Amino acid sequence: MVRRIDVTGAGGVRLAAWEYADPPENGRPRASEAPGVLLLHGLMGRASHWDSTARWLSERHRAVALDQRGHGQSDKAPEAEYTREAYVEDAEAALDQLGLGPAVVVGHAMGALTGWQLAAKRPDLVRALIICDMRASALGAASQREWEDWFKAWPVPFATLADAREWFGEDDPWVERRNPSRGEFYAEVMHETPDGWRPVFEPEQMLKSRQTWVYDAHWEELAQVRCPALVVRGLDGELGRAESQEMVRVLPRGQYAEVADAGHLVHYDRPEAWRAAIEPFLDGVLTS
Question: Are 104 and 61 in contact (CB under 8 A)?
């Protein structure tokens, strides 16, 4: 069962949260009694990208996936702020208003950064943390310019959803690793408009969100995370082995896992291998 719950984020922004809950049978706890998990997607993502993960988590957890500001079905008002502080306050508000904390926070990319910044700020709300393919080092101005050029290269509007799926999965000239699941990932963030298929988000807002963290390193905040933390990387993703191992060293209670044959979209590329990588960590958190 999946139900939508609206949350009021920083500055009054309306956020859509999606709670996954199995019926309390065969010894399963009621959702309100189960350990909480908050799932945070990455830049341009949406809560539905966690669907596979949330469904198996709901067998033993109260799993909630959040459409972050500017994404999915949450508010995209142009006057809304897209600062790091706003994203962190949104996640904090979701945990408080839903009565979910202390929760395990699972974040992909930008969502992982939000997770560890929240854990550093509000350790009382974060029981454990899973960081999926997010770097702690600064990416710099060149990276931001590449993203600006990439957005300009999108042939929007797409005539059909199949065209969008093919372009992102097979034809995108900015990506070296061809992957059909990447096409599916981006097809999920498209919606039909009078002139064709366009993203549900505003690219300008995505760039604004990104520029608030891309120029800075985040090692100091990582070192402030006191709860158990698992760093997961796809072997073909954006987080390199050396940096991931340094992140584990910096984290006071850090652990490491990797997923073979997965790119940046680890949980989407290889859902079964992703589950195998994180489930032992979650089992340990539950029994500790």
Answer: yes
